[in-house]
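Render this sequence as a predicted structure.
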Amino acid sequence: MVDGADEVLDTLLDQEGLEVDPIDRLEADTPLHKAVRFVNGLSKSQWEAGGSLVELLLDAGADPRVRNKAKLKPMELVDPRNTELRGILQKGEFAMMAGNDVVDEDDEEDDDGPTGSASDSE
């Protein structure tokens, strides 16, 4: 992407309460679908830079498993020659599926409130 644009986009995507998977009315595309279409329109020499946009969306929690109106996931829209982008989306899909099966024990410990564990409050 353009110099500095990654940092700006990353900052915007880190905002509390931001919806990273809003669906447009026309095609039922998510921003991830739109990003893949954008990368497909780039020259082959720019694909790597376009892949960073997709990675930022995935890091922000975009779900690569969402299908659009045509029943296509973002990965199914990727130019077949762009194996790097396909790999990024496959890893994102795997991480999303694995993430649903993993219990983050740190989150459970956070339920103790602002004082931490019971032994801290004595």
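Summary. Confidence is low (pLDDT under 50) at residues 102-122. The chain has five helices and no strands.
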